[in-house]
Design goal:
The protein has 1 helix and 10 strands; from the N terminus they run H-E-E-E-E-E-E-E-E-E-E. The protein is an alpha+beta fold and about 110 residues long. The strands form 2 sheets. Strands 1, 4, 5, 6, 7, 8, 9 and 10 form an 8-stranded antiparallel beta sheet that branches. Strands 2-3 form a two-stranded antiparallel sheet.
Length: about 110
């Protein structure tokens, strides 16, 4: 029995990085955008997400600073990475992040910065 558990643990640990990589992508912002009260500067960010469907936690990170926001994950194919913004109060507000297989529709009202 202990041998079986050992093998099972090795399989789980070897597969875990593959699943983590699927939920992590890079994103380049061409201009500053707001998420909640936080303004993200133009540049390259790492976007990771945990969860599925309507309850996803998205983390946007750059240079050790992270912003976490709830989102809805929609499985849909896109020909390229991108993002959708809305113009509110003179600033572009990030609404959706699109990757090749999924879209992350942000709910920026409760964004938290760390």
């Amino acid at each position: 029995m202990n041998r079986f558990l050992g093998y099972a643990l090795m399989v789980v640990l070897s597969v875990a990085p593959a699943f983590a990589a699927r939920n992590s992508q890079s994103l380049s912002l061409a201009s500053p955008v707001k998420v909640g009260a936080t303004e993200l500067p133009a540049g390259d960010f790492k976007v990771t997400w945990i969860g599925t469907g309507d309850s996803v936690q998205v983390t946007i990170a750059k240079n050790g600073k992270t912003l976490t926001v709830p989102a809805k994950l929609v499985a849909e194919k896109h020909s390229h990475k991108g993002y959708i913004v809305s113009r509110e109060g003179g600033a572009d507000r990030l609404q959706t992040i699109q990757f090749s297989e999924v879209s992350l529709q942000l709910e920026d009202a409760t964004a938290s910065v760390r």
